[in-house]
Automatic annotation (TrEMBL), chains A, B, C:
Protein name, entry field: Aspartate carbamoyltransferase
Domain Aspartate/ornithine carbamoyltransferase Asp/Orn-binding: 146-288
Quaternary organization: Heterododecamer (2C3:3R2) of six catalytic PyrB chains organized as two trimers (C3), and six regulatory PyrI chains organized as three dimers (R2).
Organism of provenance: Peribacillus glennii
UniProt entry tagged with the keyword Transferase: yes
Gene Ontology BP term (one): amino acid metabolic process
Gene it is expressed from: pyrB
UniProt: L-aspartate binding residues: 77, 160, 211
Domain of life: Bacteria
Domain Aspartate/ornithine carbamoyltransferase carbamoyl-P binding: 2-140
Function: Catalyzes the condensation of carbamoyl phosphate and aspartate to form carbamoyl aspartate and inorganic phosphate, the committed step in the de novo pyrimidine nucleotide biosynthesis pathway.
Top-rank EC class of the record's enzyme: transferase
Length: 311, 311, 311
């Protein structure tokens, strides 16, 4: 069992290995487990892209996917996440992909399961496969990270992606700056200073926009969409000021006309749908990594199966 | 990419080809794409039969189905249908089957995707695979359409099926009449006159009942069910007046005791479950048609993938 | 077609055969149908374990699973269960696994379908695959049932499992007693007397705890959780009084700290997750039994398919 819970837990070498494997998959390489392998995707929050991306990755690896619908599961009857996970282990699932609204939900599972857990997003915490696909997209573009300037812009405080990415980019040799509404910047995030919007866009190699999570802080978001776009979004005017080879990234779903002018979503610089494409390969690499490790065999110390006339 | 959006877009020859292919599938013929092929079913409205039928058709063709749950998708976060569709394209889905409550939802997608879209129902608009399976059922029974009289009865104004069917039947050489509550008939539908219920049932080769869509016009449906059945439904007495070889069709789900006496649902004349059986073969034929076309290779002009040390 | 609807309908020999086949599957035996076979799981009530377990069993047998989501199905449009089931039969599904909140929902289907129905729980009625996996777990432990004392404890009146199990255990030669809140015991259940909690736990070979179904009788459950545990749950003190080889069972989901002290859920005696593991093999055996029978060929008397120029 080899979990993937946070970016912090990955060394620079491991990050490079995962991206390298993902690139091999993108180039057409195949890998299949040597016996029937079962995986379940536990999504306790809405998701199109991440869930579909994992579903695709799983099928490309020939895995069998056991459907799990949080909305009709026994969680409604008050079952703990651990008991749900342990149940899926008991019926033979080899890896769990979990998205959950609670920060660090996986602390409850750590060391108590014999199967792999892959974190597909925990509350305002981490989203390592998103970070990895972002890094893969940057590496494809620039060949590496040394000296690349990445401007992470927007709802930094509530973004799973912002913090994981900033830390990993820093370790890989990139320069990180933050921009967007100053009240959403938090110096404790570290790994990068705040820059005003126009400077950040003008000087970055990568303009990494974040999604405004309306569902997370509805009340203090008093600006109109048009006003936000003008002040902190990527307008057509700002796009024109970007460096010749600079690219635009966004984790999606996109609020068109808020974080970015709708006409720029698929412009020459945009790598937004490219990121999604890369996400499948990253998830294939992450699943392979977890399942290869698991191959050693699972020992259920806890189950005392007998088939004897013992009395 | 070869979409199937409306019946109007299909020539008589194309209709005959699809029905012929479906009949070959019904006779046991197989067809499989020559490489792994992925499809997603986006159902934004409740459905048992159409969705299950596509799911079955997809599996019979050996396609991989990427699950999509509209109720937990990013559409809840305000994502546009285009961005959702484009996302699924980016992760490698080869065809989308879409049901959506908005009339002509596909206008938003037309010409903007490199993968096929198959319309599984748009609002009060079209439902081409339902029309095709109706036509297949009639052809199986009568060998063709020339001179066949089809009476389309019931909630014509709100029926996707009524209008597509009337037009296609007309083009194929059949005679179409409409019946049911006169206030639900609309002369602008064209392709057939209104006949009173008893005459229509007595003289038709095909009595095609439509479902009363309680969910669409609750308020102006003031009649009781028993009253509706007596005045505009297929009662046992009316069934007795039908021509010897005439058949009964209904797109289902059936409101038993409203459009049709419950005892007639599986009577000798009824082809209701036969229609559902045919639906699988029609959908196989439609999917094959879309996927064969797609085989030429998808070019993503929009993605500038690089893997170079460019700077 | 060979349904599995209730335990009562199974002879002792049939029970032993199913358990034997399940044990063969547990030991690594495989079985696959000799042609593509389709199954649908219709769960009208929340479930993790039973649904996932069937999904796993189906995949281990190489079956194709047609997804069915009760929450977005035509049942919402008022379709009868029979029409839904008949629809799935018409599109080619070979077996239906159904959980439904209505007691004996299957009476509506009996004799009207040509495909197998497997009952995955009906209201407060039956849950035969749960009973079978319980029996398998006991047999694994003790080699058989003769003279084994099983104490069924808790919410007997509302438990599907309690009654099926008591009857089957009795027929297989075991002794059954009931315990828990006396007002939840009902003498009409038969097959076993009531014992006070401490005696039952101390003298049983199998302590079979039932789940308190908060969702079924919220109002008359006035006790606090801690109070319930102390009076009628398996506390650590009671566990210490158990016979040396005695085991603990629970159908799950578990209300930790109510029916059982949370620390005992995975203790040396607990077979709770072992039961879940066995459930997959039992369901494989039950599916095989239904599908082998079905192999004779389905005849649709009701469908008059023709492909002729008949008029």
């Amino acid at each position: 069992m080899r979990n993937l819970l946070t970016m912090n837990a990955l060394s620079v070498l491991e990050i490079e290995e995962i991206i390298g494997q993902a690139q091999d998959f993108a180039a057409g390489e195949g890998w299949f487990p040597d016996r029937p392998t079962y995986v379940a995707n536990l999504f306790f929050e809405p998701s199109t892209r991440t869930k579909s991306s994992f579903e695709m990755a799983e099928r490309k690896l020939g895995l069998q996917v056991i459907p799990f619908d949080a909305g009709t599961s026994s969680v409604l009857k008050g079952e703990t996440l651990y008991d749900t996970a342990r149940t899926l282990e008991a019926i033979g699932v080899n890896a769990l992909v979990i998205r959950h609204e609670q920060d660090a939900y996986f602390a409850e599972l750590a060391g108590r399961l014999n199967i792999a857990v892959i974190n597909a997003g925990d509350g305002c915490g981490h989203h390592p496969t998103q970070s990895l696909l972002d890094l893969m997209t940057i590496k494809q573009e620039f060949g590496g990270f040394n000296g690349i300037k990445v401007a992470i812009i927007g709802d930094i405080r509530h973004s799973r992606v912002a913090r994981s990415n900033a830390d990993a980019l820093k370790r890989l040799g990139a320069n990180v700056v933050f921009s967007g509404p100053p009240e959403w910047f938090d110096e404790r995030i570290g790994n990068g200073a705040y820059e005003d919007m126009d400077t950040a866009v003008k000087t970055a190699d990568v303009v990494m926009l974040l999604r405004i999570q309306h569902e997370r802080h509805a009340q203090n978001h008093h600006r109109t969409n048009a006003d936000y776009l003008e002040r902190f979004g990527l307008t057509k005017a700002r796009e024109k000021s970007m460096k010749p080879r600079a690219i635009i990234m966004h984790p999606a779903p996109i609020n068109r006309g808020v974080e970015i002018d709708s006409d720029l979503v698929e412009c020459r610089r945009a790598r937004i749908f490219k990121q999604m494409e890369n996400g499948v390969y990253i998830r294939m690499a992450v699943l392979k990594r977890s399942l290869e490790q698991a191959k050693g065999g699972t020992v259920y110390e806890n189950n005392h199966q007998k088939w004897s006339i013992a009395r």
